[in-house]
Structures are given as structure tokens and as C-alpha cells.
Amino acid sequence: MKHISVRVPWHDNGWNSHVCANPRCNTFCKQLPNIVNSKVDCEQLSCGIDWSKLTTKERPACAGENGGFMNYKAYEREFIHIYAWNSDNPHSKLLPTKVMIPAYSALGIPFRYLNMDAQKDLSKEHPEFRPAESAPFGSAWVYNPERLYDVLKWFSSEITEESICVFYCKKGNPIDDEGLRMIVGMGDIVKNCGVQDYETTADYTYPLWEIMFSHSIRPDLKESRGFILPYKEYLELDENIFQGKGLSKIQALDEIKLSLDKFDSSGKIFDELSYGCDFISNHSMLLILEAARRSLEAVIRHGLAGSIEGWQCQLRWIDARIEHVKKQITPFPSFASALKALGIDYGNLIESDLRKKGCGPKDNPWGHFEKLLNKEIKVDSAVYNSSLPTYRISWEGQTSNVRERLITLSRFELESDVIEHFIDDVESDILSNPYLISEWCARNFIEKVSTRTIDLGAFPDPTIQGDNVPVPPFAAESILDTRRLRSLVVERLYSVLTDGDTLVSIKEMEDYLRDIMTEEDKARLPKNILLTHRQFFEVSFDYVPDENPTAIQLKEYYQMEEFLRKVLRERAKRDVKKPTGEDWLSLAMSDKNYDPTNERSQQATEQQAKALEMMDKKRLSVLTGGAGTGKTTVVRSFLCSDKIKAEGVLLLAPTGKARVRLSNMAENVSSKTVAQFLASLGAFDFENMKPRLTEDSRKYSRAKNIIIDECSMLTTDTFHALIMSLDLKFINRIILIGDPYQLPPIGPGRAFSDLCHYLNCDDADANLKSAITYLRTVVRTIASGDSDVLTLASWFSGNKPEKFADEIFWKIESKNLKGDLSVYYWNDEKDLPQILRDAICKELACSDVELPESLKQKIGIDDLKSLESDPAALENLQILAPVINLAWGTYQLNSYLQSWVGNNINRKGDYQEIGTQKIYKNDKVIQLQNILRESYPSKEKYPLSNGQIGFVKSINKGHINVMYVGIPHETFGFRGDKGEDQDAAIELAYAITIHKSQGSDFDTVFVVLPKTGRILSRELIYTALTRAKKRVVLLVQDSIGWLREFTKPQASVLARRNTNLFDYSVRAERLNIPYVEGLIHGTAKKGLFVRSKSEVVIVNQLVNAGVEFEYEQLLEENGHRCIPDFSFETPWGDRIIWEHLGMLVVPEYKASWERKLKFYEEIGYTLGENLFTTCDHENGAIMTEEVEDVIRKIKEQL
User: Fold this and answer.
1) Third-level CATH fold of 1084-1197
2) Which of the 8 DSSP states describes residue 761?
3) Residue 327, Cβ density class (10 Å: 0-12 exposed, 13-18 middle, ≥19 buried)
4) Distance between CA atoms of 735 and 749, rounded to whole angstroms?
């Protein structure tokens, strides 16, 4: 008996065998190829209709993908074999076969076991199966009916009325933007209909791949054995209802959702929820049931969906199924894997035979195995009989310690490679601490083993182990066993790395431990347990700081940050031995854009010359600045120096697009992606796509100058690997370039941002401050005037904007924009396509009819010969969106754009399927993998990088031939590979995610911004706004008002990260924000965060003086709006304003303040009366006396 998983598409009507309530807005189901290729707009005309009232052709595509597994009445479905169309195939004799689908039924295809790649291992486990034959054409599946019957009947035979069925969505769902797997419901199997045949006109037939079964889930929870989680009900509730419960809708959904993070991000469960229909092991099912119990407890606690009594019935069902599953678990679940680790083949077959020969489900199979080796047990005609003498020699040749370790390891559900490691690693005392296994697996990113995996073999439980219960010192007798708690903490420390945290506060970690415990165990967990048992715990992680610690950190990350802190600090302090002596000012002035008659141009050039001198002089330097401030110009000027080039230069960037851009700055200068560079030194793990330093990793010592661009994208471990891979005694200069306010890296830390703020903080000495140049003058708009785009972007930059920058919001609302920014509004998923289409037409100055040709012209695909010579035209226009799957995500937007361009019109066969997309000739695509690929016609190998934009030049013999920006006249072939499980090398790129766009820029950018979404942040919006070289078109949901909320410090995802690189920055609790000077500024007023250090001083002084104030409160006068820094209200109802002026030395800032001052004067504000100012001085500091003086004057009026 086995439990099973069944994949279902997301359905907005509860999988009730009705058409979706709003099919057009349900884009999540399009992650399944059979749906994306069949879903049509006419479904919208049938929304909400019962399938049984529709013909087979009228039914939605999801009817063939279990979209109606909660069907309350039977309906008929017709099956047509996929090969029947070809008269040369024997399948052409198979007839369309009608099958009645009973109420509350689903169909499962065991794709894993029908794939030809699985047949070798399957034959070892089942030598009785008839041989598998491949198709005479390109196909990944078993072809011959004999093997198909054997596999399907075996799979079906394991599904009984004792099996539990788990229904899950694979990728797309509205609950979690990034969710890869989410369980929607579970219940018992009540009937298995077995393997069915196609009707035929021949004397042979083939089996249907679909195995049909009925389940026990019912809408009435009191009558049901199993449940559907109330996602639909929660989504339909108003946000205010959740707030009445003291939480947000997102928080409530997080508490009830059954996603991978609820199973310790188990790689094993991920695998079991991946192949359409697959087996789920008893161990995994136990984890799922226990997590489901916690989800239902949350549903009951919320009291928002269904009856409490009904959900309590389901809790009783879960408890009964937990008890049932425990009885099915064997005490040695990895016996077969342990045999494989020992080099013994046919482990599963041997175990199966031993069970048939008297080894009971709760017996120890090792004793029976020895009897088999000693011929006390005989299995006639077993395929392994001839190998038994060899197996006996191997077994008897093991030491007693190895045998004991093998038997111990087989108590846990482990794969053979893990067992093999611990056979050899005799220093790991797993016999007294089995949780060392889960700790090691966490360190090595083996996600199929967790602390809970070890629990099931370490806790004495006769229901699971029978007479083979574990005993001390091996056994764990309490949930609070410190060995177990340490393993949980280690797993959590590795888990939070993906959220960006390199350490965690002790309080937050103890809160986490309580969160995953029952109410009874929570009460028993001692306070400060991580401190009272420090000596035992710190074997596996460090305490920070060492004295009076408040946080814990993985040892390797403590060492990484310590190393980076020392090296970056000391190199930043020091100068190179021999600067080049170049006349950097002359080089800067030689730039073609330099205008000696323009004050801004002069100041920008002076800043650039200062930056060049710094880069020449310092052993480590940082060049930073916002969009359009000339970072690229500085690097280009630096590379114009013959003296620098004579020393050798290596250009590095995290993305392929950024590498291409770097390589265009100078001829004969080597450029690589960071991954390519580390791989060339043996310091990159391509399996996990992470840097990995080993004893065999080499040091780089060729070019003396290392320039690294887009440093904000580098994780702490990547930064560490880069610096460690350089021969630092040989390297003259390390130059780091980037914008610290862009999106943080995908992974741990924010090393570049932390470095920028450390070098620029008030406490930094002169040597450190001289190692960073922040370019402040926007050079992109010197000729054209002010940029509305960059003004808006400045609000999301983490810096205090210019004084009259608040005017941009009024300009947007009053539709008074000109130049480089346009804003359009959409209400919901229904009107977004038309709003986007209209916006593109307006921006391209074309009619709706002319749109296809205008779009083609804009991105260059109207003139392929010109495009082949210079593919850069593809980057003339780009659509950006925050996510992939939602109705406003890139998947759906690409579908719109592809049809608007018209590449897919009247070209039925001129395409290839890759992943879940049909890609046609001339389509715009993006590279998704870092690979080395041979090109045509030159036959040269080029490094293709994740993020490179290209177009499909041709499609030939199942291959898509792509030409990329930066590599003219060369094409690269990719084989079509259909299926949602395929790791696609390319995908459509008319629309890409904002994350994917990082490191790239485009002439015109359209940005689709929904007002809700977990992924929205200040940095995400800033990054999107700064991708355009010429123009941005915003498509904002509802209004611009909500967007202002994301300008606030609280909206920073960067600031929420825990790091300890230079400044200790750790949340006390999960929902808190850590403070790092320069990243986010907390104040003495509870909950108030401000935009600058000087404003912190002002707020704290106001609080101390007991003065009531408002921060950035909107001021509306004479039809205009602005946002003062501080506002005060007099007893008679007048307003007093206080503006703090930060950068008057910068011409743009000074001019902006003068415009704002004029506005204030026009509406009745007078300096020194009801308008007050303070300013930063040359050292960047504010004078306390000036603040006190202003406070005194304001208090006099209050």
C-alpha cells in the first residue's frame, strides 16, 4: 500500500467541476502545458457553468488535468491516444474512448515511472517486468504496450482503500507569488478503478495512462473524510475582516497554507509532489498530516471559514490517519538504501523477498538478510542469487562498528549517498547523537533529510518501531532534547540564508522553536535555552557578540564576515605603492558629453575626476551613485589609461548582460561573469549554482586591476569567494561599482551596501572615506533638463530626495508630466491588457491596427538582416513586472505581447515548445542559464549568460536557433523540450521580471505595478524605474497614492536583513526592522523611521522637548501639493513648516530648494516666521545648537 499525490491546476471555484468563475483572470493554471496550449478566451463565455452541461469540446482545458476533482455529479470524458493521428503508428487503430467519471474522482498519470530514463532502475526492482521499448520517433516515454501494462498495473496495485491522496498545485497559485508546491486538500481513496483499455478496431489495444480513483472529500466537513483548505474563502474576504482578527490577509493565508516551508522545505516531499501522480512515503505523509493539523488549528483559531465543528471533525480524521500511517511505517525504512550504499544491488527486491519469507513489517530485516546470505532463507530463481556469495564476503568484511552504523542509519529514511558518507565518516558519533545526520545534511544542502526525518527513527514509538524501539544514548526521549534543538537551529540558520539573513537574534530563534511546537511543548521550553546550553550549542554555531550575546550565526558565515571586514577595511585604508600619475581631470574632460559652459556638467566632471583619482590611488575603492550619475562614464575613462591597461584589467559582473556591457567599454580587456571567473579557478559548484572554495581552488594572478560591476547583486558568500580567489599580494586595485539602493542579492547578506555605508559613516576616518566616491550629479539629463523618471526614482533610493522632488507626485496626479515619464492606470486583471495595449500604441504613436508592425519596428524584428548585424535593437523596448505567475505577471504579459506582435498568427507549425511556452520564429527571448555553447556558423564557443536578450532567427528540425545581443551574426541552437518539469534554457522576453532586468538597461521601459504583492518593496520599484535609458511608462493599479507608501524606510527589503559585516544589524523579533546607519534611521518616536541621519537628530530633539509634530505630512495649497519634512499645528489652526536642507553644495539640490522656497512664499510662508530651515555643514553633520534654536522658536508659537 502506498499513498499518492495528484497534481491539480489552480481553480477559482473550488475544483467543483464547473468552469472557473473568472477564467481570464486565472492565469495560474497555464503552468501546465496541456492547459496553456488549449485554454481559450471562449471559456469566459461559460464561466461558472457545470461541465456536465457542456460538450467535451466546450469544456475548459483543466477538465483533462483534474481541475474538477470535487465533482459532485458524474460526467463523461473522451480519451484520444496522443499517437492515434499517425496512420503509421499501431495506435491509429485505437478509437476515441469514452469513460464515465464518477462523482468525487480524479485521474492520475504516474509520469515518473513511464519515462524511459526510469526503466533501468525500475527493472532492477521488478525484473518480472517485460522489456521497455523506445518509440521509433522522438519521445521520452515507454512505447510498447506490454511494458506499459506492467508499469501501470504495478502502480495501480499499490493504491488501496488504505491510501491517502494528496492534491497539490505545482507552480501557479494566488496564495504565494513564488510558491513551487502547495497542497490544496487531502482525503482517503475509496475506490481504485484500475487500468483501463482503449477501444480498438484491431486485435490489440493499449492502456489508458490515466488511473481513475474516487476519494472521500466532501463539501460538508461533518460528513467528509478529508478536506479542501479554505484558500478560496480567505481570498474572497475583505482585508478589514482579517485586521479585526489582529493580522493581515497575507499573514492569515501564511498560517493556513500547506507549502514546502511547512515541511522543513523537504526536498523529498518536493520530489514526491512533482510528477503528476506519484507515491508518497509513509514518513513524508506523516510530516504532511502533522503540518495539516497545524493548518486546520489556524483555520479554527481564525474562525473565518466553515463551521468550527466541521473543522474539528477533520482534526479527528487527521489524528486517525496519523495513527494509521504510523502502523504502516517500518522501523528500518532505509534498509534497501543501506544495502546499496554497501555496494549490494537489488536492495528493494531483496527487502520485498524477505518480507514474503517471513520478515514482518515491524521486524528487523538485518537478521533476515544474514539468514539469506547464509542460505537459511532461500528465494528460488531470484535474479541476485548468483551474487549472494559476493554480498556475504562484503558484509562479513565490515567491522562491527560499520555494521552497527549501517543498521542505525537504516532507521531513518535516507538515500544511499547520505548513508555512504556516514559509513566512511567514523568520527561522527551518530550512535549517540543521530541528529548529527540532519545537521550535516543542512550544511550540505541535502534537503531530503531534516530534523523531523531523524525524529521518526530516534523517538521510541512502538506504533512505528514495534519491538525495535531505540534506546539511550541513541534515543531521543523529549521534544526538548538539546541534540534535537541544535539540529533545528542549524537548519533554521541555513534556511534564513535564502531570506538574506546571515545571523538571527536569540529571541527570534527561540520564538521560532516555540512556533513549531505544540501548545504543551511551548510551555515546557525553558526561556533562554540557547544561552543556558551554550557550551553544547556552540559546537555547531557561533554566538554574537562573544560576551553577552544576543544573536547566533553559522560558523562559516561568522568567518566570512570576519574575513571580509578585515580585508575590505584594510585595503580601503591603504594606497597603492605607485599610482599611475595620470591627468584624470583631462581624461574626464575629454568625454564627448562634457560641456564647459554648463555648471552641472562642470561639477559632474569634477566628481568623475575625483572618482578616477580615487580608483587610481586606493587598493580598494568603491564607485557608487544613483541612476544616470555617470558610473559607466567613469569606468570608460579609467580604461582609457594606457598605464592602467598595461598593468592588466579584469572586468567582472554577476550577470551576462552586465558582463557584455562592461566588455563594450574597452577593447582587448578580459570580461567574465562572476560564476565563469570562479569556475575557472575551481571555486564554483554548478550543481547548486553557488561558490565553493576547496583545497584545489586556485588564486588569480594575471591582471593587476579587478573591476567588479553591479556589486549590489553579490551575496556575502560570493563576495567572500571572489576576494579569497584573488592573489591579494599581486593585485594592485580592486574597484567595486554599483548602486547600494537596488534590489539586494538573491541570497545571504548585503555586503556591498554594508561596505558603502561603513566607508561613508560619520565615524569613518579620512582614509576610509577617501575610498568611496558617491556620484551625485545626474549627467544623463544635463542636455535635456530635469528627468521626471529620476526624480521619482529618488524617492525610492534610500536617500533624502531633492527639496522640490515631492512635486513629482503632484505632476503625476495632475497629468502634467513631460519628457521621460508617462503614467497610466488600470483597475484589475480585466482591463490591464487593453490599458497596456493603448499605452504602447500611444508611446509608439500608432493606431491599434498599426500596432503589430510598430512593435516589430521598435524591437527590430521587422528587418532581420539589420537585426542580425546589430541585435541591440531588441532592447529598444522592454516590459517589466514584479512576478511571473499572476495575471499581471510576465507569463501572461508575454502571451499578450506575442499575439500583438503577431508572430504566432497563421503559423501553426512554425514553433517549438520549450517548457510551457510555444516559441515562434522572430520571437524575442531571454537566456535562463549560464552555459558555454557552440555557435553557428563560426563553430566558436561563447559563454551565454542568464539574462541575455535575443531573438529566434529560425526553427529547424526541432531546434530553435537564437541570436543574442552582443553576439551578431552567430546563432545558438536549443532543442524543443515540452513540459513544466523541464529546465528551459530560454523563454519569451517581451516581458521579464524586474529581478531579471537587474544589470540591464533599455531605451524605453514599461513597468506594470500592482498595488498588492509580497514581493513589492522600495528597492524593487527603484530598480524598475532605473532600467530605462530614455523613457519609463508606468502602469499603476488604481492610483499613484499607494506608491508613496513604498518610499518610506519601512518598505525597504534591504534594511530588513540581518548582517554583521561592519555594523551589528539584527532584528530582535521577526517583524522588527534592524537599524543600520545609512540604511534605515530609527528615532526616539515609536514606529517613526526617517530618511537621513540629520532628521534623526531633529526628531529626537523634538521628542525630548515634548513638541508634537508630523513627519512628511502632505500639504495642499492652491491646487498644488508638496511634502514638508516636519509640520506643526498652532492652537489657532495654522501650520508651521520645518525643512532640513542636506546637500546645498549640489547644484541640482540647491536649485530644487529654491523652487520649493518660491512655492512656499507664494502660498504665504515666510522664513523665520512660519517656515524654518536647518542645513548640513561641509562635514555632512548638523549643528545641535541650530536645531535647539529652531525648536525654541517653534515652541514659542505653539
Assistant:
1) Trna Endonuclease; Chain: A, domain 1 (3.40.1350)
2) S
3) middle
4) 20
What pLDDT is attached to residue 1180? 66
Strand order in the sheet with 504-505: 504-505, 551-554, 541-544
Whether omega before 545 lies within 30 degrees of 0, making that bond cis, reads yes
**What are residue 101's DSSP bridge partners?**
75
For 356-414, the three-class secondary structure string (H helix, E strand, C coil) is: HCCCCCCCCHHHHHHHHHCCCCCCCCCCCHHHHHHHHHHHHCCCHHHHHHHHHHCCCCC
In contact, 773 and 622? CB cutoff 8 Å: yes
* Rg of the chain (C-alpha set): 33
Q: How far from 1043 is each of 1008, 1038, 1040, CA to CA, in Å? A: 12, 10, 5
pLDDT at 1074: 54
pLDDT digits (tens, 9 = 90+) for 1008-1059: 999 988 889 999 999 999 999 999 999 999 999 899 889 988 889 998 899 9
CATH of domain 557-775: 3.40.50.300
d(CA 1052, CA 63): 43
**Is it true that 788-1047 and 1084-1197 share their CATH fold?**
no
Between CA 779 and CA 359 the distance in angstroms is 79
- 788-1047 in CATH: which number? 3.40.50.300
Closest CA to 948 of 985, 901, 906: 985
**What's the grid cell of residue 201?**
478496431
Residue spans per domain, the chain? 3-220+270-282, 335-547, 557-775, 788-1047, 1084-1197
- Give 212's strand partners: 107
CA separation, residue 1177 to residues 528, 600, 1149 (Å): 46, 21, 14
Contacts of 939 (CB under 8 A, 6+ apart): none
Residue 900 corresponds to which cell in the numbers above? 500583438
* Positions in the chain whose pLDDT score sits under 70: 37-42, 177-178, 780-785, 906-909, 978-983, 1070-1080, 1119, 1178-1180
Which sign does the torsion angle of CA 1174, 1178, 1181, 1186 carry?
A: negative
* Tens of pLDDT, residues 722-746: 999 999 999 999 999 999 999 999 9
- What pLDDT does 522 receive? 87
Long-range contacts of 129-136 (CB under 8 A, 24+ apart): 129/154
